[in-house]
Design brief:
Layout lengths: L1 E2 L2 E2 L20 H20 L7 H34 L1
Helix pairs in contact: 1-2
Amino acid sequence: MTALGIEFSSRDPDLFYWPEPSSHGKPLDLLAIESRIDKLEDCYKIACDIEPLPWDLLEELDDEIKQLMKVRDRIWDEWQEKIRKEVTA
């Protein structure tokens, strides 16, 4: 079979693939926390469109997001400190 003068049977197999998203060397637990925060923020935005506003749900989501952000900051600081120690050692 040919199209535009190209013989398809003689082509190399298609080797295209989607690369894994870059984590920039972040620890896996930090990536998991960031992913969970993103999902909760999406839920929060969706809940804001419900009429009447579900204040209990919004407060619950907001509290969980704030708690996870504290955990994320702690993990980030530990990771950065570990990097600093490796660089200075």
